[in-house]
Amino acid sequence: MRLSRFFLPTLKEDPKEAQIVSHRLMLRAGMIQQSSAGIYSWLPMGFRVLKNIERIVREEQDRAGALEILMPTIQPADLWRESGRYDDYGKEMLRITDRHERDMLYGPTNEEQVTDIFRTHVKSYKNLPLNLYHIQWKFRDEVRPRFGIMRGREFLMKDAYSFDLDYEGAKTAYNNMFVAYLKTFARLGLKAIPLRAATGPIGGDLSHEFIVLADTGESEVFYHKDLLTQKTPDRDNYTAEELQEIVDQWTSFYAAADDMHDPDKCDVSGDDLVTRRGIEVGHIFHFGDKYSNAMGATVAGAEGKDVTVSMGSYGIGVSRLVGGIIEASHDDDGIIWPESVAPFKVGLINLKSGDDACDGACDDFYSKLMTAGVDALYDDTAGRAGEKFAKMDLIGLPWQATIGPRGVKSGMVEVKNRGTGEKQELSTDDALNLLVGKA
RNA sequence: CGGGGCGUAGCACAGCCUGGUAGUGCGCUCGCUUUGGGAGCGAGAGGUCGCAAGUUCGAAUCUUGCCGCCCCGACCA
């Protein structure tokens, strides 16, 4: 993509409403535009990152055996009356009345909707286990939206729902998602730690939240330092026993958010206990028959009798992750995107647009990158060098390739790693090989 | 939901107290000079001062009401 043809409204100054770093950088890097409190438009740069995160989340859900569907944003109130949550949910639920005076709502979550799908079509234990997920916009009318995209009212969430015949099956489904989450967050370049969590209004008796460590996180977390050095599971198709082992291993270390942390009951000694701040980016629940019972989601068991299915739900805040990743990965100059989610892999800087030699070398290098399938943003604009460097650092592409009058004669390209700041002068071919290898 | 703050050009802000032709910097457009870390000079474009009512000869400025947004706390993917 040529920058001259792109839409990238960057800002030199900090918008005053943006207090935390991810919000500031997202606005400055032209990723989002606020529409109203807690509601944002996604501009091309932001949308690309959002889609990359969504893609990774989807791939890992698919690998874990979950099946993607798409449920609507607008739901009928009657479904929620069945579960009893229409009255329980309170003002966070955005309620809408259609032209026929029917009560509708903008879904804050989809347990009722998915349970309705399940009970309509699944009648036999032979069709279990089943895990259905979707990646859809949610709306929760938060009293106080803040932190930009991190706590919006409208947000993109992956939510999966598992259906099993009994508790043991449900626990395996839960463990399966637990492991899928470890893999997902690792691919996103994040250190995410699972914490035992209170189950809250969704109900149930087993729940973990996944926290990304970042200094600007909303809550304080306490954990054993060895938790961060655990090996991320990397295989597919673990058996139930293997899943349990992995979960047992990861949960054997002490980890608690401030609301669950009790210094008296914490047996981790001083140096081993780490205290940091974190952002919740995922949450998994086992809640048994809370919804299946209320809504009549039963299947015929092996003995021919109806059995109420055991369910769990598993959320990942996809849009929140955009902010979460920035919180976890930035410096004074701007964002540092992990390669897996970067909007482009390489930023190509033409230091002297309008100069025939520079233009020629850059155009040539750019077309080679494209031919090699490297997603590059080519700054072919007439700006000055400093301005181009600053902008490239701000938007945080993992690799920068700079071609200017100095190197063009000798056929050299300067390649910079945005994360480490390391620069190297390479021949065009070597630079190309390096960047192709990374993409 | 309790407490606090702010609405003036795309962004950051001054002007308001003490009413009298709407300003500054950045950004944007054009020209020239520059060109390896957010350039210099010159010339431009861009604002019904959040909305409404009131006071006044006259309101960005004073009064009242409304709307919007942000921050702190309690609550949440």
Structure description:
32% of the residues lie in helices and 28% in strands. With 439 residues, it is α+β, with helices and mostly antiparallel strands. The protein folds into two domains: 3-335, BirA Bifunctional Protein, domain 2 (2-Layer Sandwich); 346-438, Anticodon-binding domain (Rossmann fold), CATH 3.40.50.800. Strands 3, 7, 8, 9, 10, 11, 12, 13 and 16 form a nine-stranded mixed sheet that branches. The chain has a five-stranded mixed sheet with strand order 20-19-21-22-23, with helices on both faces. A three-stranded antiparallel sheet has the order 4-6-5. Strand 17 (330-331) and strand 18 (334-335) form a beta hairpin. The longest helix is centred in the middle third of the chain and has 21 residues, at 167-187. The mean pLDDT is 93. The protein binds one RNA strand of 77 nucleotides through strand 8, strand 13, strand 16, helix 9 and helix 11.
Overview features:
Rossmann fold; 2 domains; BirA Bifunctional Protein, domain 2; 439 residues; 28% strand; 9-stranded mixed beta sheet; alpha+beta; RNA-binding
Sum this structure up briefly.
The chain has 439 residues and is α+β, with helices and mostly antiparallel strands.
CATH superfamily of the largest domain: Bira Bifunctional Protein, Domain 2
User: Count of DSSP helices?
Assistant: 13
Poorly predicted tracts of residues = none
Task: Return the domain count.
Answer: 2
Alpha-carbon distance between the termini?
15 Å
Q: If you average the pLDDT, what whole number results?
A: 93
Give me the CATH fold name of the largest domain: BirA Bifunctional Protein, domain 2
Per the principal axes of the C-alpha atoms, what is the gross shape? Answer: globular
Sheet with most strands: 9 strands, mixed
Please name the CATH architecture of the largest domain: 2-Layer Sandwich
What is the rounded Rg?
Answer: 24 Å
Mind telling me the CATH class of the largest domain? Alpha Beta
Q: Determine the strand fraction and express it as a percent band.
A: 25-35%
Class from secondary-structure proportions: alpha+beta
> Tally of extended strands?
23
**Percent of residues in helices:** 25-40%
